[in-house]
Structures are given as C-alpha cells and as structure tokens.
Amino acid sequence: MKNKLLKKLLLPMVMLFGSFIYAQSVTGTVSDASGPLPGVNVLVKGTSVGTVTDFDGNFQINANDGDTLVFSYIGYLTQEVVVSGTTVNVTLAEDAAQLDEVVVVGYGSTTKKEITSAVTKVGEEEFNRGTINNPSELLQGKVAGLSIYNKGGSPNEDAVIRLRGISTVGSNSSPLIVIDGIIGASLNNIDPSDIDSMTVLKDGSAAAIYGSRGSSGVIIVTTKRGRAGTTSVDYNGSVAIASIANQVENMSGDEFAAAGGTDLGSRTDWMDLVTRDAVSNIHNVAISGGYDQTSFRVSTNFRDAQGILENSGFKQFNTRLQASTVILDDKLKIDFNASYTKRDSEFGFNEALRYAVLYNPTAPVLGVDSPYPYNPDPYGGYFETLGLFDSFNPVSIVNQNTNNGSRNEFTYGANFKYSVTQNITLNGTYSEQFKKLTNGEYYRTTSLFRGGASSPFRKGLARLYTRDDRFKLFELYGDISIDPSEKLNLKFTGGYSWQEETFNDYFLSAGDFPNDDLAYLDALEWSQDQINAGQISINSNRSPEQRIIAFFARANATFDDAIYFNASLRREGSTKLGENNKWGTFPAFGLGVDLNKYVDFNNVDLFKVRLGYGVTGSLPSDYGLANARFSPTADLLSTNQVTDANPDLKWEQKAETNFGIEFNAGRLSATLDLYTRQVKDFILQRAVDVAVYPTGQRVENGGDLSTNGFELALNYDIIKKEDLTYNSGIVLSSYKTTLDSFDATTLRGNLGAPGQNDTAVILVAPGEAIGEIWGPIWDGTVTNGSQNFVDVNGDGTIQAEQLIGNIIDANEDGVRDGDLAKLGKGIPDFELGWSHTLTYKNWDVNAFFRGAFGHSLVNNFRVFYEPRVGSQGSYNLINTKYADPAITNAKFSSLYVEKADFVKLDNISVGYNFDISDDNKYIKNLRVSLSAQNLFTITGYTGADPEPALTDRGSVDNGGFLGFNADPLTPGIDRRYNYFASRTITLGVNVNF
C-alpha cells in the first residue's frame, strides 16, 4: 500500500525533475546592424515557453537541442534558429518591405527599389499636423529640395512652391499637380483630410514623361479610397485659435512723443485694434466601403478659417467622391473621381497691418465728437491725418471697406483599365475641370483709403473681377510586360494625350457714388463716373481654345532584381507657340544599380546608385504671344499694333542631370542627390530693331540660367521596442542659380514711396546669381543726419546712387563706376527640416523643426520709418536694435539688409488613442490630439517674419486679388504689405465608427 502511494507521489516528481534536467538553459544576445536589441520576443516554437530580451539584448530560455527558437520584433524579419548547444546569438534583419512599396509615377507605378529618378513619397502618417488649410502645407519642410513658403501665412494666399529653385523666368514656376491621374488638377479643389499620400518627382528624368507641364517638377496626389467588404464612417474635427506671432518693433505712444513725434493726445495700439485671436473650425466626415469588387468613398468637409487680421478668412465646403469597380469577367476596372469646392473669402486689407505699424500712435481712433460708426462726418467718424502722404487710419480701413470673393471649382474624371491579357493592359482617362472666381472690393464714400472721401469730385470706389476657366483632358495608353528570362523583366508603355483649356475674365472699376445705401454688387449703375469720361475702367479677356497634343513612350527593364533602367520620349505640340515651332521633343533616361547584390556589404539591405537625365519644356503663361498684339486708340475708333508677331517662338527647355545614392541598413536609411540643370530660351517680351519690326517690341526666346544643388535625407529609428519607438529624420537641401545670359543688366525691386521710388535693390545680370541684393555700404558713421558710405571702388569719391553703372564696369576699363556692393542674397544657402516621432503605448508625439540659412531680407519698414526724418514726425518710428537716432535722412544701405537665418518649431502634436472595447457596437477607434504650429522662432531678424521672400509683387499690393504678378527674379524684399505670421493651437478629435 505504501509502495503504491510512494510510486504515485514519486512518478510526477521524477517526471517534473526529469524535464528540468532534459530542458537545458539557452542564453544569447539579439542584435541588429546597429547593436543589441531590447524587447525582442523569443519563443520555443510550438510551445508557450517564451521570454523577452533585456536592455542589452540578452535572453535566457529553457530549450532542448533540436528545438526551434522564434525571434520576432516589430520592424524586423522574423527569424527561426534551431538550438544546438547552450548559446544562440542572432542578428535580426530590418524588414525591407518598404523597398517593395508601390510608388506612383507618371502613367503608372513601380516599386521603390526600382526607381532610377529622384522621387520622394510622403504618406499621411508623415504629413505636417495641426490646422492645415492648403494641401501644400502638408509637405512643407518634408521633401529635400521642395521649398514651400506662405510668407506671413495669410489664409487666403497660396504658398509659393519651388522645386530645386527657379525653373523658368517667363512661365509657371510651380510644380505640375496630378490628382488621381488627372494632370493639371487644382490643389485648391482637394481637402487635406482626403489625401492619402503625395509623391514628388524632382528631377528631369522623372518629370519628362509629362513634357512641357513637368518642367517645374511634379507632385502626384493620391486620395484615400474605400475597401470592399468594410464599411467605415470617419469623423475628423478640430477647433483652433491663432494669435499674432510677432510684430514689427515700433514705438508706443509715449515713446513716440518723447522722441519728438507729433503728439495728438491719445495713446492707441493700432495693431491690437486691427488684429484678433482667430478661431477656426474644421469638420470632415467620410463614408467608405463596398461589396464584391466595388468600393467607394464619399467625404464632406467644412472649414471656417479666420485670419488674425480683422475681416480676413474664409468659409469652405468641399465634397469628394471616389468609386471603383471591376466588370467584364474582371477584365475592366473603372475608377471615377469627382470633387466640388465652394469657398467664400474675406480677403481683408493687408494695408491695415501696414498702417497699424506706421500710423501715429498718439492719434485717436474716432474724430472729435463723432458718434461711431454712424454720423455725417465725411470720414465715417474716423480720425484721419489729412495732408500726409500714405497715412490712413487702419481701423477705418478694416471697418468701412469690403474685399470679398468666392471660388467654385468642380472636377471629375474617369479611368478605364482593360486587361487584354495577363501582360497587356489598355488605359483610358477623361476628365474636366471648371473654375469660377468672383472677387469684389467696395470703398465707402466716407473712406479716405481708396474711397476718395477727401476729393470733392469723386467719392467711393467699386471694383469687380470675374473669371471662368475650363480644362479638358483625354489620354489613352497601353502597357506590355515581357519576361524574356528569369532574370530579365521588360515593360513598355506608349500613349496619346490631348488637353484643351479656355478662360474668359471681366474687370470693372467705377466710383463716385451718391451714398453707401447699396452694396457694391448693385451700386455700379449709380456710379456718377458714367457722366465723366475716362473714369470708368473696363477690361476683359477671352482665350482661344489652347491645346496640347502629345505622343509618349517609355521602356522599363529590370535585370537580376538589381539593375534597373528606364527611358522615355515625349513628342508634344502646343497652340501657344509660333507656327514654325509648335512641336518639341523631350527625352529622358535613368539607370540604377543595387550594389548590395554584387558586393558583400554587412547588414545592408540596399545600396543603390542611380543616374538620370531628362529634358522638359515650359510654355508661356499667357495666350497668343506668338501673334501680333493690338490696343485701342484713345478715341476707341481704331487700334494700334503694340508687338510684332514671332512665328518662330518656341519652348523654353530645361535639361537636368541627377546622380543619387540610396542606402538602407537596419534602422538607418539615407538618400543623397546631386544635380545640375540648364534652362534656356526664356519666353520674354524684348525690345527689337524697329527697322525690322515696326513696333519695336516682340516676344522672343532669349536667356539662360543654370542651377547646381544637392539634397540629403536621413532617417534613423533611435528606439524600436514593442511599446516604445522613436524615429528622427533630417532633410537638407542647397542650390545656387546663376543667370548665364540675359538681354539686359538691370536693378529690379523698386522700394516705392515715399522717397524710395528710384531705389531698386535686386541685381538681374548675366553671370550673376539670382537674388543678389545690392546697395551702398554704411561705414557706421553719420554726418548731418546722413549715413556715410564706403568708397567701394577706391576712387576717392562716393557715388552711391542706385544706377546700374555703379554695379558693372560700364566703360570696360577695369574700374566700377560707382560704390554699390553686394549686401546679401534673397535665396537661402540651405534649407532644413528635422522631424521627431515618438510613440509610447497609446501615446504619440510628433515634432517638426524647420529652418533656412544664408538668406537676407530688405526690411522695408526699417528703410522707410526707422530714420528720424523731421518731415515724418506724424508717422510712427521703427525702433529696432539697429535704430540710430542720429540718422535723420532716409537712404537705403547695408544698414537695412538683415540676415534672416531662422529655426522654428513648425509644429508639435501630442495624441492619445483610446482603447475601445471589442464589444463596443458603435465606435471602433477614438483619438484626441493637441497641436501647436509656429510655436517659437529663433532668429536675429527684426521684421515680423524671417521666411524667404522668393518672389516680389512690386512696391504696391494694389488691393489683394488685384495685385501684380510675382517676379521670380526679385527675391529678398520684405514688403510692407505682407501678412503677419500667427501662432496656432489646435484641439482635434478623430472617431472611426
């Protein structure tokens, strides 16, 4: 009995003890290419026995010889090792699946590892966070070589976008936009919430397949799509508050009076009165789903965005539909996209910010004994400093006048893809875009600012502008894939493209109204300008049907899954060019080799070198430039010819060579691109020999520029654990553009009135870099209120007038004629973006720093209002650290050109994803986030915004949407009409039902 009981007790003990004896203790270290990996899961395959590596990557586990250990870790390939002995050391390889990521390129897609051009894809998880009202802002600072600046940050202004600097002088210098295959689509007709990814084609070999429209680069936008079998309802909402981030340093009322300014008895903070804490609301609802092989996504977006300037901002409604289906025995796939946007804008008046800086800070807001705002006072009850040039009450500007507009855009497109065989497909695309703009300004009869209230002859002004644009696109192309051997894969693409665009616009300006009882849209018939000849201004334009027809072909080859080659050719014709040169040919090729395939690099996933070359063209922005142009005579009874025809007008051409290196090893990835480009045959109006061309003016090809630059992108996973990850990435770019030849040497960038009308500061000259700021050098001393300048040419006299002869050797005797010198440049030496992404369990933190270095700005507020000019005693004074009370004569010099290097915390976002119970019937995911934009800026620049001014609209803004065209050859001037930057805090919520 006892023996049986003993056996029953001993047997399981022996078996348990025997198992410990049988299972040996296995130890080891798990690493990657960068060192030990903490937090790696180690499991005995087929059992529940497991452990996790410690901080130094070490582990210990009980396993027998012959057992299989499974090592798994997020972001790495799972590895299995058969136990043989008591020590197992493992090096995990980075999951290189990202190399097989599909990237959309021109007329098709390819994998990331097969790309032979400079192409960057940015996904939704990498986009900038916070209140984003324009899709271009999603990419700001994220792509090396892509410069995006909305100086001041007005909600109604589009950002200036430059890819690798200036690509053209006389044409459109912004990249071509392609949205879901629709070439030339409008970024303004897509809501940022609907974008899934954006791919930037940076070099000529990538963009050449788009011909003339890809000369300034290409941005391909892919929108979010639905998935069949999964119905989802998503809501994204946010509320944001923005305040002015930085002000121009001027004097308070007390400081102004103490400095000898005209004291009118009040103390007024004008900037506070014309700005506000702006509140914006964004709501996005999207429904997606489908069944079988049909999917759809419908989204609706509402935006109510206020600007920090009173009466500025917009309200926008956008809706978008995407649907896909497959029919005809799965051979025909149909994709349909449609989008509609309606935006109602209050443009406000940037001039209110300008006059808030310079208006007398001791002036009252209202006139004496004027009950605001209703009274018979000729200025609406507002105080005005009559008799002063360029001096207007900023509160009166904001409250008395209106500057509103609306924009309606509708786009639809359908793509048909038919699989003839497994290796042959045909694609057809048709799309149309419609856009209508209507903008109107009204200046009350009591408004001194543009309303003419001080004139006994003309009071009030109304200006109306409307424009209709229509664009059609039809494309047909086919693909053939061939695999001649196991190592060689070939793909050929060929097709036809047809585009047509038209527009018509109308402008009307009239004034002198009897009163303000009617709104400007109805009051034009009351304009008393009708009885005064020459007062009403009318203008209209209508384009002929402008067409582009193209034939294109491309060949792609992959050998040994490591050598990649592509070549393309586009033959394109346009009606915008002369009869003798309507057609152009644009070739490109690219070659890439993954050296990792043939050289034994340790722990390297990719080491690819690539070389690309491509030619693209550029068309003029205007119509009919190759034809003779006419204008009416003063009596409107006949016409005068103003330019001669040019039947030989041809394309601008850009040829670009790009060399790149791509490297992936474990946690580190890097891309380096070096490029050079040459642009020739600018399309410009030039003075010609009147003996040959009677008008003396003709649009011709002339001028060349070259750009050399480099781009570097680095990304490293600093921490990569199951519950904790930290990634940091840097993009860095630099370029220099030189105007190799041009038809004249000139100074551009007239600073304007008062007193600087003859002062131009930006040099445009053959052989010089674009964006050079020139002027006299102040030697640091003052005589009788005037700055003393340096004798640059050493001839014993000072000649500092802004004359072109002062810059060049006009007499070609080796001696410059004057004493002007280079004071700075408007284009940065390099631009930087630095991103940080941290996740911990349900928390995520994103921070992004952005900077630009090496550029300068002409601080126009300082030029005009920092000198203590006695005749300007009724204007406020700028009071920066550079102000010298001894200077009483306003003269441009090196004193007013400031280095504008900056680093700013562009945006930071903290988010939390709530754990939603599996049995919750309604909510699948819930996320709350708090974001801040433009939180702080580190800079020595004393102006309101140190960001580069890449273009210039001239010295007078002329009223919002009626402003002059921007000049790309005149960067570097910080104008007085610029909007002021804001700091924004955003609370957001994302719910998935």
UniProtKB/TrEMBL annotation:
It comes from the Bacteria. Keywords: Cell outer membrane, Membrane, Signal, TonB box, Transmembrane, Transmembrane beta strand, Transport. It is a multi-pass membrane protein. Residues 377-935 form the TonB-dependent receptor-like beta-barrel domain. Gene3D superfamilies: Carboxypeptidase-like, regulatory domain, TonB-dependent receptor, beta-barrel domain, TonB-dependent receptor, plug domain. This is SusC/RagA family TonB-linked outer membrane protein. Residues 112-218 form the TonB-dependent receptor plug domain. Residues 1-23 form the signal peptide. NCBIfam families: OMP_RagA_SusC, SusC_RagA_signa. Belongs to the TonB-dependent receptor family. It is found in: Cell outer membrane. Its main location: membrane. InterPro entries: Beta-barrel_TonB, Beta-barrel_TonB_sf, CarboxyPept-like_regulatory, Plug_dom, Plug_dom_sf, TonB-dep_OMP_SusC/RagA, TonB-dep_OMP_SusC/RagA_CS, TonB-dep_rcpt-like.
